[in-house]
Amino acid sequence: MALQDLSGRTVAITGASSGIGEATALAFAAAGAAVALGARRADRIEALAQRISDDGGTAVAIEADIGEEASARAFVEGAHERLGGLDVLVNNAGVMLLGAVEAADTEHWRRMIDVNCLGLLYCCHAALPIMRERGGGHIVNLSSVAGRRAGLGAAVYNLTKFGVTGFSEALRQEALHMGVRVTIVEPGYVETELQGHNAHNPVVMQATEKMAEQIGDPLQASDIADAILYAVAQPQHVSINEVLVRPTGQRN
Fold it and tell me: Whose CA is closest to 230, among 248, 217, 242, 218?
């Protein structure tokens, strides 16, 4: 039995094909919300939607590459149309491609900026008029510990996540006048597919493995999903603006 009852709420989640996005979809569905699942991997989100439906929930899968403005807008508007509303937008999709700035593949930079920054902006831009018309809503933006603390080898990833943090606070101030709450969630080390984005770089992978060993017991995607659900489930007059979640064993 879910600790929160979000029956009747409608939620759109980007990056829902795995990791935090998948766990968040399952958590919201278990709490009674209807969820729209957005990701490039259509087979993954279709299987997840079926799993939620089989468990008695409501879910729709909408293939989307949020790094493309038209696709991001189509996802948000499609979620609204197919679910009959849009109460919550969870901007979870992200790319983490680490390494030195010198001699970097600049296509990696563009991909991170397209997804981590522009994709999030496109989705917010599409969602705000819908939420204004509905009289309110909630936008949850996934950043990272890397959006608070810069580190060697993560310069451009830091740039994108610091940007998400700054944007989210400014958006909070703008959107409160239309009854839209904004929450930024900053996970530490979470055991997901994100680390695998760096499989092309042995140096980064070795450093990641060493970090995991030092932490010992990393966060799971469900831990972050619980934090998101907690923020969204608060009464309308309560706005959880920032949630930083690290594994207990993570120093930085």
Answer: 242
